[in-house]
Each structure stands twice: as C-alpha cells, then as structure tokens.
Amino acid sequence: MVKPWYKQFWPWFLIALPLTVVVAAFVTLSIAIKNSPSLVTEDYYKKGKGINIDISKLTVAKDLGLKANIQTVDNQIIIQFDKGQLDNFPAISAMFAHRTLSDRDFSRLITSDTSGKYRIVLENPLQGPWFIELSPHDKSWLIQGRVTFPSKSVTTLME
Hints:
Layout: H1 9-34, H2 44-64, E1 67-73, E2 76-82, E3 92-98, E4 106-110, E5 117-121, E6 128-136, E7 143-149, E8 155-158
Antiparallel strand pairs: 1-2, 1-8, 2-5, 3-4, 3-6, 6-7
C-alpha cells in the first residue's frame, strides 16, 4: 500500500525549500525597513544651486587670505584662525558634517581668544572623517575642508 503524499518526506522537503526563501525575504525586508540609511542632504536641487554661492564665498576667503588650522586635544577641537586681511577675529559659525550619518551633524557659534584660537569642547571626541565649514555670522566668506578625527597632526583648511 502506498502512503498518501502528505505522509511522505519528499513533498514536504520540496515545499520547505521555497518556503524558507519566502521567510528569509520577509526577515530581510523587515531589517531593511528598520535600518534604512538616512539621506545626508534632503534637497539635492537646492544644495546644487547653492554650490555657485559657496564658490563665490570661497573666492572671497581666498582674496582675504583666510585659513584655519584644526587640531584635537582629547575632547577639544582647537581652531587656529589666520585672519588674513580682516581687522579682527570674528565670531565664527563652525558646521561639522559627518560623511554619511546626518544625525551626527552639528554647528557651533564660537569666539576666539586673543591669540586667534577658537575652542570647541565636546562631550565625546569625534571619530572618523568630517567635513567642516567655517563662516562668519554674516556668511560673507567660507572656509571648508575635510578632517579625520582624532588627528595627531594639524590639518589646514583654506578657502
């Protein structure tokens, strides 16, 4: 006497193979939904239009002879600003943008001591590559560059 199909091994084995693929696909989908990557720039079009404005601000910084040296000491970021043709050391807006994780981006308005050093004290030291933009309150010029933290050596940002 032959057993009915549902009591045999091979039909269930053949059904189990595609069923495991379907279950794995749903697990992968749920992981992807829960851990979706964030966009670093929400509106690419506006950011693209702003590039021309940034270039003119970079040119102003170059004409003024502005540059900044950045170094880290423990959980401090020290920016030595060369004011070039500026009359004084202005208050600077420092924007730190992580390369891929937009939720880590932050900005600080900082002022200098008498020697032109700007200090930012952080709760935790920065790790990895960061894009930094320095500009005055009126946003008339811009200095930018990439710095990898922590850095034992000084990194120079110029126009």
